[in-house]
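Notebook entry, structure prediction.
Reason for the run: the old model in the group folder had no record of what sequence produced it. Starting over properly, with the input documented here first.
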Amino acid sequence: MKPQALKPPSFRWFDYSRYSFSLGLKAGEHTILSGHSASEYDSQTRAIVVKGGMAEQSRTAWTKIATILEVGGQSLADVVRVVEYVTPAGIERYAEAAGARAEALGANRPALNTVVVNSLLRPQALIEIEVTAGRGEPPHAAQAGTSPAWAPARASDGLVYLSSVLPLDEAGSVVAPGDVTAQIRAIFARAARILDAFELGMSDIVKTVDYLTPAALPAYKGTAQVRREVLAPVFPAATGIIMPRVAHSGAMIQVDCIASRYPRAAINPGWDSYAQLTYSPAIRAGKLLFISGHAAIDPNSGRSIHAGDVVEQAAYVYDKILQVVGATGGSADNLVKTIEYVTPAALPRYREVGGVRTRMLREPLPASTGVVCETLLRPEFQIEVDSLAILD
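New structure, fully documented this time:
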C-alpha cells in the first residue's frame, strides 16, 4: 500500500517541505508521526528556536500533532501509542508534561513509552513526542484504573503496544539493584503478565527496544541468556541503546515492546551471524515489517565500518535496512518510519545525514525521529537506525 504523507495546508511553526522526513504518514489503518517538539521558525533571528518550559513545550508539541492527525481524518482520540523523549533536565519536570498530555488526550489512555535521552537535536528542547494512531481497542478491563493518563498496554489493528516495562515490584521498588540480568528477567515476567490479559504471550512479541544505562553495559551480554529462555525460537527484532538513565532513576534497564496477533516470520537477507544472536534482522507480522536497529557493522564478519564518519555510516546503515526490506520483495517505497539514535560525536556532521536520506529513500519520505543517545554498543558507532516498513 502506498503511504500518504500528511501535509497540513497551514503549519505555522516551520516549512516542513525543506526537511528529509514527513511530518507523518498514513498507510491503511496505521498512522505514524515523526517526533515533534516545540521547535518553530523565528522570523527575527531567522532560525529555528524552542520557547518555554516543559508545560508550554509539551502543549505546543500536542497542538502540532493534532494538526497533522486532522489531515488524515483523525484526532488525538485515535492515538494508541505515545513515545516521549525527555532530556535529563526535562525528566525533573516530567509531571508538567504528564499534565499537558492529560489535557490533550482527555479520556484517551494510550500506551506510554518514556525515554530519557542524552539530549534532543534542538538544545533548548526538553521533550519530543512521537505518536502512533489507529483503530484502538479500549484498554483491557483487567487494566482499568491503573493510571488516569495511560494504559500498561493498548491494542490496535492486531498489535499490542506495551508501555515502558521497568524492573519494579508491586510496591514500585526496583528489583535486584545493580543486577541487569535479574532486572531484565523481572521485566520479561512483568511483560508476560500484561500480555496475558490480551491472551498473548512472550512468543508473540515482534519488537523489543532495550534502553540501558552506562552502568548496565559491562554485564549487558548476560541478558542474552534470558532472551534465549523467554523469546526463542523465533527471536523478535531488537534495538539496544545506552542512555544516561531510564524512566525510573534506580533501574539499569527498561524494555519497550510490541506484540502482534498476526503470525510471525523472521526475515534475514542471508546474514550468517544472526544464527548466534538473540534477535532477528526483522520480523514480518501481517503487512508490517519490524526491523531491528542497525549500525555500521558488517553483518557477516562483525567488523565495524566507516568508524568515526556519521555520514558514511548512515549510508551503510540505510543500505542494510533496504536489504532487509528487499528480502520481503519490498523496496524503499515501503519504509514508513525511522528513529535515528546519534551520539554526541556525530552532531557536527549530522545535518549531512539528511542528504543520505533524500538520496536513498523515496517520496513520501518516512516519518522520522532523531535523538542523541549517551553512546551506542560500540564506541566507534555514531548512528543506529531503528525502522518500520509496511509491505504491499
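Summary: The chain has a mean pLDDT of 95.
The old model has been moved to the deprecated folder.
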